[in-house]
């Protein structure tokens, strides 16, 4: 009984990373948009960094989901 509850608690804690990923995505795109509106000529040079930040943030969400599933079914 206690082990089952511990699995659910661990999965819930691991899912907090997905919330961080959602906040990170909003922050990344919001800052890029603010910078692109201030200096449109430099926006093209920063697009690669935007995509890299997006990929890293998405990976955080996927990894936290993986850890939650491992905690539940592992």
Fill in the keyword field for this structure.
rod-shaped, mainly alpha, about 70 residues, 3 helices, F1FO ATP Synthase
Structural description of this entry:
By secondary structure, the protein is mainly alpha-helical. The longest helix is centred in the last third of the chain and has 34 residues, at 40-73. 4% of the residues are buried. Helix 1 (2-14) packs antiparallel against helix 3 and helix 2 (16-38) runs antiparallel to helix 3. It is built from 3 helices and no strands. The protein has a single domain (2-73), classed as Up-down Bundle (F1FO ATP Synthase). The mean pLDDT is 86. It starts with a helix and ends with a helix. This is ATP synthase subunit c. The chain crosses the membrane at residues 6-29, 50-73.
Task: Estimate the strand proportion.
Answer: under 5%
State the distance separating the first and last CA atoms.
Answer: 16 Å
Which homologous superfamily in CATH is the superfamily? F1F0 ATP synthase subunit C
Proportion of helical residues: over 70%
Q: How would the global form be characterised?
A: rod-shaped
Q: Structural class per helix/strand content? A: mainly alpha
Order of helices and strands: HHH
Regions with little confidence, pLDDT below 50 for 5+ residues:
none
- At the fold tier of CATH, the topology name is F1FO ATP Synthase
* Number of strand segments: 0
Total count of domains: 1
Tell me the CATH architecture.
Answer: Up-down Bundle
What does the secondary structure layout of this molecule look like, with pairings?
Blueprint: H1 2-14, H2 16-38, H3 40-73
């Amino acid at each position: 009984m206690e082990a089952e509850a511990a699995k659910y608690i661990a999965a819930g804690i691991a899912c907090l990373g997905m919330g961080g990923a959602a906040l990170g995505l909003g922050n990344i795109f919001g800052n890029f948009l603010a910078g692109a509106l201030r200096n449109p000529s430099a926006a093209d040079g920063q697009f690669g960094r935007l995509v890299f930040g997006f990929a890293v943030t998405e990976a955080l969400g996927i990894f936290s989901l993986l850890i939650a599933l491992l905690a539940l079914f592992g």
